# Entry
Amino acid sequence: MTLVLDTSIFFSEIPVEGPAWTTPSVVEELGDLHAKCRFEVLAATGLRVREPREEDRVRVEAAALATGDTGVLSRTDRDILALALELSAVLVTDDFAVQNVAHRLGIETRSIRQRPARAIRWRYRCSGCGRYWREPGDCPVCGAAIKRKLK
# Structure
């Protein structure tokens, strides 16, 4: 089984078995000496790095919009999701928002240290007047912040 690795795997000592991929944006996030060394070890044993296709990034954006996770996904999150989608790979991550979008896209996920996330749908509620909206921002009725909450 092919794996796509999120940044958090490089901060752990969990073994990685089988063919593995990651993205350049994950490599850029490795500021810790231990994580860089772990990357070098995995790269020496076959870890490959590449950018995902643009059409898969577009599909990730649409899925993130549908789940309500657009505002919390980083560029790196979007990249690993798109690469896992392209390669039909298992995504290794502890990030709940990433797992939620992966569920929407039909991508199998594997947690590293956390419990697996269940698929959720977000709603947006005004912190002032309590009205529900389709996206975060400022409430057009009262002007208060619209915040994300579980459906």
Observations:
- The mean pLDDT is 90.
- DSSP finds five helices and nine strands in the chain.
- The chain has two domains: 3-110, 121-151.
- The CA atoms of residues 3 and 17 lie 9 Å apart.
